[in-house]
Amino acid sequence: MTNAPDAVEPIVGWRYWRVADDGRLASLGGARDRWLPGQPFRARCRHARIDPFDERWRLVDGFAWSPHGAPDERCSCGVYAARSLAALRSRYLFGLRFMAVGEVSLWGKVIPGRLGYRAELGYPRSIYVIRGPGERHRAGLGAYGVPVEAMARAEVAFSPRLALADLVRRVELGVGA
Amino acid sequence: MRIGKEAPAIVVEPVVEPVPEPQEQPSPAERERPAEERPAGTPAP
Question: In this complex, do B25 and A139 lie within 8 Å of one another by their Cβ atoms?
Answer without folding.
Answer: yes
